[in-house]
Write the C-alpha cells for this entry.
Amino acid sequence: MFFINICYTVITYRIKDRMEAVPVIILERRPVIRNGGIEVGMDRTKILVVDDESRMRKLVKDFLQKNNYDVMEAGDGSEALDIFFEQNDIALIILDVMMPKMDGWQVCREVRNYSKVPIIMLTAREEEMDKVFGLETGADDYMTKPFSMKELMARVKANIRRRSMEYASAQASGTANTVEANGLCLNPETYQVTKNGAPVDLTQKEYDLLSYLIRERGKVFSREDLMQRVWNYDYYGDMRTVDVTVRRLREKIEDDPGKPQYILTRRGVGYYFAG
C-alpha cells in the first residue's frame, strides 16, 4: 500500500536543435509502514547495494548473488531512495557513506522515517566518532573498508535473521506483552519506548539492547555475549560497538548517565539491567 504524492518537475528535451523545457507530473510513492517497519508476507531476500564506486558494487553484488540473494544497485543516495520506496520489499541495505548528491547518513535518516529495514554502513573512515554517528543515525551495523566478504556475509545473515526474529515476535506479541521496569515501558509491537510516560527516541540497536537486557534483568552479560545475542555475531564485530551503544542508551534513559540506575556495569564481567 502506498501514499501517492503529486509533484511537478521539468524535463528538458532537444527538439530540432533547440532545448525546450517541458513540465511533467511525477507521482511519488511512499510506502505505508506498519508493525514498526515490517510488512506481512514479504520475501525478505532482496538486498540493495548503494555505492558510487561501480567496482565495489559489482564485487558485493556478485558475492551476494552467489549466496542466493537478489541484489539491486544504486550509484548514489538519491537513486537508492527511489529504488527503496519503489520496491517496498528490500530486506537489507548495504550503504556507503561518502557519495555524491546525497551521502549515506542522509539516506539512512530518510529510510528510518519509514522503515526499520536493517542497514549496514560501509566507510573508509575508521574514527570511533564516525561509528557512533552512524549508529545514532539509525544504522544497524558499520564496516570499515577494506573488509572481508565473508565477514560482510556473516553480518548480512545476522541482521536479516535478527529482523526476521523480531518480526515473528512482534506478530506473536501485542500490547499485552508490553515490558515495564521502573518507569520504562517498551512496546514490542510498535518499538516505542517511554519513560514515565514521556517518549524516548532510540535507534533500532539501542532498542534491541535495552529490550534484551530488560527481559533478562539481573543477568550479567559480557560484551561477547551481547554481540552474539543482540547483534547476532558469533565472532565478527567490534566489541567497542557494545560500549558505544550502552553509553548512548544511558544518555537517553538515565537521569544521570554518570550514575546509572538502569544499565549497570559489573567490572571485569559486563553489563546488566538492574531496574
Summary: Confidence is low (pLDDT under 50) at residues 1-44.
